[in-house]
Amino acid sequence: MQLHFSPSMKSITISSSNGFIDLMKIKVAARHISYRTLFHTILILAFLLPFVFILTALVTLEGVNKCSSFDCLGRRLGPRLLGRVDDSGRLVNDFYKVLNQVGTDEIPDGLKLPESFSQLVSEMKNNKYNAKDFALILKGMMERSEREIRESKFSELMNKHFAASSIPKGIHCLSLRLTDEYSSNAHARRQLPSPELLPSLSNNSYYHFILSTDNILAAAVVVTSTVQSFLKPEKVVFHVITDKKTYAGMHSWFALNPISPAIVEVKGVHQFDWLTRENVPVLEAVENHNGIRNYYHGNHIAGANLSETTPRTFASKLQARSPKYISLLNHLRIYLPELFPNLDKVVFLDDDVVVQRDLSPLWEIDLGGKVNGAVETCNGEDEWNLKSNLAMWKLGTLPPALIAFKGHVKAIDPSWHMLGLGYQNQTNIESVRNAAVIHYNGQSKPWLQIGFEHLRPFWTKYVNYSNDFIRNCHILE
Ligand SMILES: *[C@@H]1O[C@H](CO)[C@@H](O)[C@H](O)[C@H]1NC(C)=O
Ligand SMILES: *[C@@H]1O[C@H](CO)[C@@H](O)[C@H](O)[C@H]1NC(C)=O
Ligand SMILES: *[C@@H]1O[C@H](CO)[C@@H](O)[C@H](O)[C@H]1NC(C)=O
Ligand SMILES: *[C@@H]1O[C@H](CO)[C@@H](O)[C@H](O)[C@H]1NC(C)=O
User: Fold this and answer.
1) What is the mean pLDDT of residues 434-443?
2) Which residues cross the membrane (predicted)?
């Protein structure tokens, strides 16, 4: 964004590199116009500039917090143009002073602000504003736009939060149809795995994976991608854990779509005797504490003081309140040793990953006595999340796995795991292609409409679109 005055004052050019105003050239024939007209021209130009700043601010919203666009205007006008000695320099210098002066003034109550730029222009024609009044109106209008931008940013975050925690129709359909199939089709009810393979479920010479989810499509992608990438798929055992309502559908899926030669077991949380209220306090907390339910499912904007919050903090607050944090399925990883007492080493996979390489070398990593191997993901924002989960701590419920394993985690080389595909769009496609495991952590899951289009194919590649259930439910069409 640049403002050029040609030395002879014959033209003023605004150019912008980001395409909002490509090249606006305003010719001013210096000899034929009065100083006063010129002054107005510059005021209008100055007024256009902040709109460009605001548009830019929309894109990089953090800019709004760092300096209000009004201050930015002064700052940007200042250094570039001060120090000139010709008329234009003095002119801008004067205007800069006025801007600075009102920069610290409060907008008087009752100051009538034009609704739009064209209204401002027509009011300028009718009333003779002095420079100071004009600058005040300018400031008022800009502050109003900034407020509106902030508010709409918060609503956008809120809507995205709801979009991220909802279940898409196609996935819901898949679950219902497969559940129906479970009751009507004996093949969908067949024992998983078949009886002769049962001993392998607790045989430590196999590679055991655990996946805990209520999303059948996501489970299918994780299992398919892992098995297809594995060098010895016949040695893979998948333990898929799901909740009671999804059990029948999940079982149907893997009964009807065996991923041989790998072995798949499907279990519902209701089938583990160990998962009782005494052992798992989170179960009780979720059922009995309204406070907890509201904290994770409530209207997050109502209780928040938005004037004290930046969009970024609000976003991470929302994230920390994701309903997944009170889902038992999300807490299961803490109890793996109790749930699978016979297994020495397991790899726990989240349901939003895609495995792209053979994972057997993970079993060779010496964990050095630590209970859990994980790629270190703890950063500033996670720390924040931990703090915001204090409510859970206080109620004596279980903290997220991240805390439970704090200090007991052995870091695994990050090349194993590429994180953040659900957060940021600027992911390097080449790195995505090369990572052993890609993780769509964040809101933009590949099965949601808000998923990032260019990252989705790495996931949909493992969705079998010729499957009748997938086709009939119009998944991601
Ligand atoms: C585990 O599986 C291996 C190879 O499939 C087999 O040789 C071994 O006997 C099994 N062990 C047990 C305890 O069943
Ligand atoms: C929100 O915070 C601002 C600034 O600290 C304060 O003036 C205002 O009273 C607060 N509003 C509510 C509803 O708490
Ligand atoms: C993400 O980036 C890609 C290419 O870099 C672009 O085509 C797409 O529109 C972006 N999507 C969003 C939601 O920003
Ligand atoms: C996809 O589904 C069809 C129909 O159910 C099945 O015949 C085919 O083997 C599946 N393909 C893969 C790669 O699983």
Assistant:
1) 85
2) 37-61
